[in-house]
Amino acid sequence: MRRVVITGIGFCSPIGNTLQEVKSNFEQMKSGIRYMHEWDEINGLESRIAGVVEKDDFKEIPRNYRRTMDRVSMMAALSLQEAIAQSGLNKEQISNLRTGISFGSAMGGLETLFSYAENVAGNDGFGHQNATSFLRFMSHTVGANLAVMFEIIGRNIPTSSACTASSQAIGAGYESIKYGMSDIMFVGGSEGLHYVEAGIFDSMGATAIGKNEKPEEASRPFDKERNGLVVSEGAGALVLEEYEHAKRRGAIILGEIAGYATGCDGNHITLPSERGMEDVMRNVLSDAKINPEEIDYINAHATATPKGDIYESIATNRVFGNKTPISSIKGYTGHMFGGGGAFETIVSLFMIQNSTLIANKNLNVLDEQCADLDYLYSHRECDITYAMNNNFAFGGINTSIILKKI
Amino acid sequence: MQSDIAKRVQEIIVEHFEKDLADITLDTLLEEDLELDSLDMFDLICALEAEYNFIFEREMGNSIKSVGDVVDKIKAHAPKA
User: Fold this and answer.
1) To which H or E segment does residue A35 belong?
2) Which distant-in-sequence residues (6+ apart) come within 8 Å of A389 by Cβ?
3) Which residues of chain A have pLDDT under 50?
4) For A67, which DSSP code?
5) SS3 label, residue A388
6) Chain A: residue whose CA lies nearest to B52
């Protein structure tokens, strides 16, 4: 069976755009969530905090590519550029029928979509709309733009499943290589912040409220005082490569994707299902051909919503019991939506490489309704061979990825 | 580049397409010299329509090759001009 390894990574995140920044922020348990002065004029928002990628100038991307990119695509483009540079792939290997791409986002280009809709609904109608707006906001804008910028001619599989968009993209890349359709896949996802996300989740009662004055304490996975998620943004990109292909060209191998599974609850549009979560965790173990006790660390989806964290903890307990260390990094980053699965996979890879597990942030008192698990209250040094990254999305879409030290 | 219209067209091209002012004369070809493609052409027309408050007919757009052609079309059709 063909093995799939990681030979490059890149990211933009609310806790930094470089490995050094991210590492330092984790070490200091520093949050990337801040008050959004930019939203002061927006009426009716309860949650006025967010995780922000502190970068506004993307002029390093040539204009002929940037013209059709919203923020969501530009963050993804810089992340992929970094990942490809790290992988050492040459032009011939990148523009190759055996090299493909799979990238996702939850919303496409929201900033552009909103200004476009405002113009159309206002007095302008369609009279003065430019030609590039749709290309910036369409649901597959990230995958389409990246393929053009990097001249990718193999398969292109855009994903759009909210919180699992980028983990499904990783899965699509993994399966493309494992089953022989590609030798290299550029995978990941992205999300650009917009106040409408805070408004949408406010309306569902899913945002963290009452913490506008203390943003860094707002996102608190598994904690008794949690009351919702914090919206955020960012991107993650990985270069996946067939193991022998990577070895032959002398690539530095960062880790292995040892398994992937995705499944669907087929139950409720927003409520998670313990059974669905349990199924996807069991299925990924089966794909990786390992037992639950071989997993050394679980990176939980845990967005800090009241019900989601409980259901996830129960499903995790059913599969693993209470001996496997678990944490969610959303206490630091907030919920990066379409960028979350990829960034969390990258962070899990850091943990494997550094033999250090990152603790939950803001987990002070465990919610007694959460199942018995080995929750990480502080960073912990330990050797990690296998790590699992879980993500769950509206529509009951579930993903689980297993990373292996190599 | 003498007239006000010509100067404004020059500015719009610089602003929208990040070109150097010095590279734009009435003889500059939009496609060959400035490397504007069909998407850029639509966006140029969109910007000109907003600036001069008139609608470019599609056929009109097809006949524009140079910066001078753009200026001529505006002079001929735009009420504000």
Assistant:
1) strand A33-35
2) A167, A299, A341, A344, A345, A348, A400, A401, A403
3) none
4) T
5) strand
6) A128
Q: What is the pLDDT of residue B53?
A: 85
Which of A116, A130, A145 is most worth mutating to test chain B (most B CB atoms within 10 A of its CB)? A130
Task: Give pLDDT, residue B56.
Answer: 81
> B49–A127: do the CB atoms touch at under 8 Å?
yes
For the annotated catalytic residues of B, the residue numbers are: 37
* Residues of chain A contacting B47 with CB distance shorter than 8 Å: 130
Selected catalytic residue, list A12, A163, A194, A245: A163
Residue in A253, A221, A248 with CA at minimum distance from that of residue A335: A221
DSSP string, A120-166: HHTTTTTTT--SSHHHHHSTTHHHHHHHHHTT--S-B--B--GGGHH
- pLDDT in the model for residue A327: 98
Cβ-based contacts under 8 A for chains A and B: 25
Could you tell me which residues of chain A have a Cβ less than 8 Å from any Cβ in chain B? 63-64, 67-68, 127-132, 135
- A301 is known as an active-site residue: yes
The alpha carbon dihedral of B23, B27, B31, B36 has a sign of: positive
Residue B1 in this model has a pLDDT that exceeds 70: no
CATH code, residues B4-77: 1.10.1200.10
Give me the interface pTM, i.e. the ipTM: 0.85
Alpha-carbon Rg for chain B, nearest whole angstrom, is 11
The strand ranges marked E within A192-344 are: 234-242, 255-264, 297-299, 325-327
Residue B2, pLDDT score: 61
Tokens of B44: 């140029």
Q: Which residues of B touch A127 (CB under 8 A)?
A: 49, 55
Three-state secondary-structure class, residue A112? helix
Query: Under DSSP, is residue A48 helix (H, G, I), strand (E, B) or coil?
Result: coil
Domains, chain A, in order of start with CATH, read 4-404 (3.40.47.10)
- The question of whether A194 is a catalytic residue gets the answer no
Q: Which residues of B touch A63 (CB under 8 A)?
A: 17-18
A132 closest CB neighbour out of B18, B39, B50: B39
Question: pLDDT band at residue B80, thresholds of 50, 70 and 90?
Answer: low
